[in-house]
Amino acid sequence: MADLTAALHRLPTPRCAYLYDTDVLRARAGQLRAAVPPRTTLLYAVKANGHPDVVRTMAQQCDGLEVASGGELALAVTAGADRIVFGGPAKTDTELTAALKAGALLNVESPHELRRLAALGANTDICLRVNRAEGSLTGSHTMTGTPTPFGIDETQLPSVLADIPPGLRVIGFHLHAVSNNLDGPAHAAFLTDAIDWSLKTAFSYDIPLRVVNAGGGLGVDYLTDASIDLTPLSSVQVPDGVELILEPGRWLAADAGWYATEVLDLKTTHGRTFAVLRGGTHHFRLPAAWGYSHPFQIIPIDEWPHPYPRLQVTDTPVDAVGELCTPRDVLTRNQHVPRLRTGDLLVFPRAGAYGWDISHHDFLRHDPPTFLTLP
Ligand SMILES: *Cc1c(COP(=O)(O)O)cnc(C)c1O
């Protein structure tokens, strides 16, 4: 926090920045590596944060990168990733060709995609992404056991497997199922179940199973500083000859990013106090997208170089709102502040995943934040 505060002080006013800390990324990757069972491959899901410094750090700290577009693939190649896994339901021929050239392992999402891949002359190992009949996990954004555009419906798997085009060899399954799961024992049970199901399915269809990709979904709790308990994961049994791939984004990157922005105005209307920020949901859309209130910390700024009075509120709840012309531009509702002044900074921790990358930057055409990478 000291480095962060110093870096923020050096910014031009009005201050507005994303800060990423690569030491935190390294620490998170190390913790996860220590928690997973033998024969687990750790990939970082680039979509959580595609900042080149983040991607480069994770390419070094993890075994590789998981990508979901041609743009992410290019980032992963530039970052020098040893392994690249490419998923996503809408791959274009250009993307498929680039993925083959980069030696990426493709998670194929439909029989149509299989035929398109074969028509490109592919001669490669692949995994099939499957939407299983039962989704055993809770969390947000459930993707399997329910109608979604992701993967092949389990009931259609027999006909798909009976008709794999020449040149393509199925070596495993991709079973990413959920986002932001906070239940460690449930996640361990999900991994075990994914392995069991894959072994059984591979045996039935005579597939030489080498890969079980259980996706991402390890959660962080934005309302506290808790994360999913990883301890239960170590007891998952990965059979000899099989590689368990995990590809988390949020758990690795969330704690490595802060969004910080200056209070431009303070006002009370109809009994509610608003801190109006130089920034907002066009930089940090996550709380608006997921419908929660993201807690902030205050960094007091002592200088006040202006001729007019500094505004201040004390001992009161405030809503932290942005600079957009919409009442939905809200980052935080009703957080109690001991004291808050115009010119002070609000810092939103846990903004390193699905922060800038999912936000609608061009709405209203305000200046982007400054991006700083520590150390
Ligand atoms: C989004 C995604 C991930 C990463 O999910 P997190 O919730 O950030 O861990 C991994 N794999 C696939 C296929 C994804 O779509």
Automatic annotation (TrEMBL):
Pfam families: Orn_Arg_deC_N. SUPFAM superfamilies: Alanine racemase C-terminal domain-like (SSF50621), PLP-binding barrel (SSF51419). Its cofactor is pyridoxal 5'-phosphate. Keywords: Pyridoxal phosphate. The keyword S-adenosyl-L-methionine does not apply. Residues 26-254 form the Orn/DAP/Arg decarboxylase 2 N-terminal domain. PANTHER family: DIAMINOPIMELATE DECARBOXYLASE (PTHR43727), GROUP IV DECARBOXYLASE (PTHR43727:SF2). This is Diaminopimelate decarboxylase. It comes from Actinoplanes couchii. The lineage of its organism: Bacteria, Bacillati, Actinomycetota, Actinomycetes, Micromonosporales. The gene is lysA_2.
